[in-house]
Amino acid sequence: MFIEYNSEKISKALDDFYNALGIDIDLLKPDFSYAIDTPLQNNKYCKLIQGTSSGNEQCKCSDRLLLTKCKETKKPQMHICHAGLIDVAFPIIYEDNIIGYIVFGRMRPDTNFASVKKYVASLGIACDDAEKLYVEIPVFDDKKIESISDLENLDFVNVSGSAQRLAWNSLQHYDIDYNIKKTVNSQFDAFKLVKNSENLHTFLNS
Predict the structure, then answer these.
(1) What is the mean pLDDT of the chain?
(2) SS3 at position 94
(3) How far apart are CA 161 and CA 178, in angstroms?
(4) What is the number of other CB atoms lying within 10 angstroms of the CB of residue 24?
(5) Do the Cβ atoms of 97 and 18 come closer than 8 Å?
(6) What is the DSSP string of 123-147?
(7) Is the pTM of this model over 0.85?
(8) Rounded-to-integer distance, Cα 153 and Cα 27, Å
């Protein structure tokens, strides 16, 4: 399947994502190569690790393992890499075929630098320099993953033509099953239905 990427628009979207959340995000092709040349973006800690031949090769191996599991299961996958950071991969599926991957992460788990200090030292990198960059990385909040699972199998009202499609995409990315029971044309109509029902839910803009 031939896929044409609008590099300018995608690159801007990835940069906007980073600027909003401080988390790196990449778009990869089915063969795991970068669809847009934005690897590492602003993560100075990863750049430091990959500045060594051993660290660079281990990063590639870690990415391949994550993406291979994502490919085999066709489901989102998450792991902690060799350098102590969390990566999450989502398959982009069209007509049951994977046409690419969204990978975001290089996030720090709620642990201190001591957990990776020995590894960093083995690469010949000054630990003091690495630690300063490590602690600047955003901490991953696993409670967000746990809370989204509470949406499993809930019944929703969809507002036609609204930005709610982003919510549905997010639920699908997390492999959360949900039911759209009714589609309406305005947020007001959705609000009335939800207000008068104990079992219906919706996403409304504030």
Answers:
(1) 80
(2) strand
(3) 19
(4) 24
(5) no
(6) TT--HHHHHHHHTTSPBP-HHHHHH
(7) no
(8) 29
